[in-house]
Structures
1.
Amino acid sequence: MDGTADVGAAIGREKLMHSLYEAAELEHNLMCTYLYAAFSLKDGSEEELSEREADAVRRWRRAIIDVAIDEMGHLVAVWNITASLGGSPRFGRTNFPLDAGYLPAGVVVKLAPFSESVLQHFVHLERPHGSTEPDGSGFAPELNATRTPRPLRLTPAAFDYETVGIFYETMGANLRAMVESHGESETFCGAPALQLSTTEVDLGGAKVVTDLSSALAAFDAIIVEGEGAPTETADSHYQRFVRIREEFTEMRTANPNFAPAFPSAHNPVLRKPPRPEGRVWIEDPEAVAVVDLANATYGLTLRLLAASYVLPSPSPEKTLYVDVAISLMRALTPLAEHAARLPAGPSNPDCNAGVSFTALREAAALPRVHPPAVSTWSGLRR
């Protein structure tokens, strides 16, 4: 292959990686916002719900958590595609709330407890292309600027997209173009053994990507599971949120005082923010301790998942890393639910706390360190 072709492949790969890193952050952020809303929901008659209301809220919590688990599967699919292209998957993300323009202006991402407007926001995020579903109240973008780059740039740049589905369709088209220009073997140069499969984790997105067909299938599965297929898909995220919205409306009509969630903080933070607007600084000592432990649990989960992507399959160590990460994710649930029931502190007397999902500045796998030989330690002791 001549030098020009090598440069072209490198540029195409960098642009795809740039989009895949954004896709990983997008799926990751959506997963956290869905979990936050689910954690804020009440549980049973002891929390001022009737038996009928408690039953509905339990179903909503399960449905929203199931959607979040699907998002985790989408995240694994994006990581696998990234690894198949010879890249290192992206495990980090910026902290909540996301600054305007980090994603397209119309995609607003922040932590908020379950409510009518938050539910509408979820419907809007998962809407199919061509849908007129509006965003929820309080989720208007701060800026309406576009970020679509000019064509023919060598440096990768983000582009605008109206829906998540369009974003994945565009990446699929770009990947297809790269294969047409450089071939599948040149494009999919990553080691398949470094990906996650159903051997390590039971998630829909855990399918090894080795060629264009498997990569496009992964993109299509993400679109269909979120928006739904062109024909009706009853189990899509969009339809699941619509059904919750319909039942929530019925419950509110029957009981205008129906309050299914605790008043958890909007965008809780543990450190006093330089920009307090739109954030709640948690001051209550018990809440601080619980949220801090929840965040540390979340951070270690990411570190373990990152470490699993540098270990080839089959590997007992790789399986162990993933198993421990999943166990930590389960352990996060009671901590986050407890945080939603604790006061935020004196500065926000009418507001509860909530897990803030504080992200590590870098969540990549740590270097593998092997213990030095005995003679080396002996020399040091002398």
2.
Amino acid sequence: MNLEYICEQMVRILHGNITCISESGAIEACYGDMAAQCNPLFTDPEFLSAVHERERKDYPDLFYEKDTILYAVVSLENAKIVAGPVSTEKHIKDSEHYLMQHHHISDETGFRLSFCELKVFVSGILMLYHMITGKELTINDLWQKNGIRETDIIEVKGQISSVIFEHQEQELPHNPYDQEVRELDSIRHGDVEMLNRSLAETYRGEVGQLAKNQVRQAKNIAICVIALASRAAISGGMIPEEAFSMVDGYIMKIEDMNNAVKIDSMMRQAEYEFAECVAEIHKNQQKNELVEWTKNYIYQNLHSDIVIGEIGQKIGVNTSYLSDLFHKVEGTTIQQYIRKEKIRLAENMLRYSDYEVKEIANYLSFCSQSYFGNIFRQQTGMTPARYRKKYGKWKEQK
């Protein structure tokens, strides 16, 4: 095994240094840009000693500093391989400041902490571990081995007991389950009036406490409600990818808000939009599983040049049969449906983003901006530029 070669290549994947520590605790080698000048293992002897003394484990040992600065240790027979530091947050100035203050890293080094998505870093560590040891672990294995301690479980059980006791002592139950069922059923059936009635119900009890801070409490409740609403909408016939995208959009917006009342209002708006989407689906179609798979594939690939033959191959049916079935159920061809959905997404981007028309045409894989403009005008009755001028919300938001 050529450990040097493996480490040199893995640095590019992990976007961070890889350091080899001997059995005695000395640094034997380090790989990565400006590794020695900017690596806490070099600048902070106490940190190097703490990493060296960490318990040897038969799996990659993950540990954090300040919740966002991540390291991984792979223990070998006579050495340890340490990957990191990397930041798992895109906004890493605070992490850089922390490392420089606590690990004696000088401004003169031009220190810049690398960003690496958590899932990319973990996948890279699993690959490094396999290449060095020959052992295979799944991501789930890694989380479980690095995750919850017995003391954490004891604390959670104690917290649950405390919550139950407090609610019983105050004779104040949670919000009734049957009300929640009616709320989700209204979304599942696309029944906006039923949703109105379920939200207007009065009952004894209150939603659970999910945070001590009022705004964080509102955000956590909203995340739970929107996630449940999306599943109800999918059950009611909504395309999963579209529902998941709505969840992402609403939750990202809510995370940027700092007013509990407005957060609650945005949460309810999401519920109503899910119910309205399901109502539209129920109004227009009879469901067919192959057709739904086709629509979900199209939605996931709107940014690509979708080839109808590839859809048939993907879901395992004859292309001609699928085309005929789709036309029979939807009343339109697959190609027409693809164009309609691309233009629908283009309308959304023109309304709510600052992407230029040319960028939108490229993103949606139209062969030219003029062709995109022609198709857009056929479907909406106006040019993309005129549509943005009339309906665009981006400048209003800014």
3.
Amino acid sequence: MAADTTLELARQLLGFNTINPPGDEADCMRFFAGWLSDHGFEVSLSSFGEGRSNLVARLPGNAPGRPLAFTGHLDTVPLGNASWQFDPFGSQIDGDRLYGRGSSDMKAAVAAFAVACVQHRQKILHGRGAVLLITGGEETGCDGARVLIEAGDLPEIGALIVGEPTANYPVIGHKGALWLRCETRGKTAHGAMPELGINAIYLAADALGKIRHFSPGAPHPLMKQPTLNVGRIEGGLNINSVPDRTRFDVDIRSAPNLQHATIRERLGALLGENVTLTTLVDLPAVLSEERHAWIRQVYHRCQPLHDAPLTPRVVPYFTDASLLLPALGNPPCIILGPGEPSMAHQTDEYCLLSRLAEAEQLYADIIQDWMD
């Protein structure tokens, strides 16, 4: 019955279009808040702009100690340019696959941990309690989590589970993200008299030649080599003018051994005075101590689902944990969700129903362990 309830809730969440940008999570968040309230949660909704909202839901416990927290986001990335075979908001099922934008990343996980809490509500109420931190705006740099933190409404917690897609493999960390906008300024002139201007595209091209071989820093034992990618460039207004402004955006993925301020300083020195840097996103890396007792306990629960012995793993994508963990006092954190990592942001995104059922049971086992 729990698995049926999880699937039903996942399909309902997938029915809402929460593509970000623009990030219209409010209707989906209100629906989910009502569902949680109907199932005994204390619910608080907060807005951070038109159509944007966050949700904090609590099942307060009566036993000493801090509650177990789950976090997930309800916004999704755009559909992309390729045609979908399955309706991205139809929550269609084909064999073992539940299709829809956000199925793996990460509405199925949100449904699974919410239902697991409801199924074990009495255990939670007599134990240390549980908290759900549900955000909007994660896909564009953890915007909702940042607002949630600034509002000062975060409860004290003992441990955090992030339901991002890991195919139910326990992950102890992820890389940090530093997104920089690099801008060059020139002088406009008629395209037939380029000698009278300064071409900002040429300045950007010189900068790109330098940045292509820039290393953000030394490798990390677990997260390996940091990465850099130029993901977007734009410049010029028309073909017959010398462009006076060009900008390109840089995506750097870092590790705990690297300081973002140092990376930016080194890059700025390399590019020189012709390039102005602006920080768009600054999210630190996350890494929990694998030997922590709770982490080992979660490993124990996950091991039967995997053939080989579990080893410390990290993922390259960022999560709301980048901001939530420091604000929550850096409790131990596991990234654990039923979604397929390879399906995140893909056309015809899906989550395996078998993984979804496994996740609901995994979350239930972790909840019971925490309350005992």
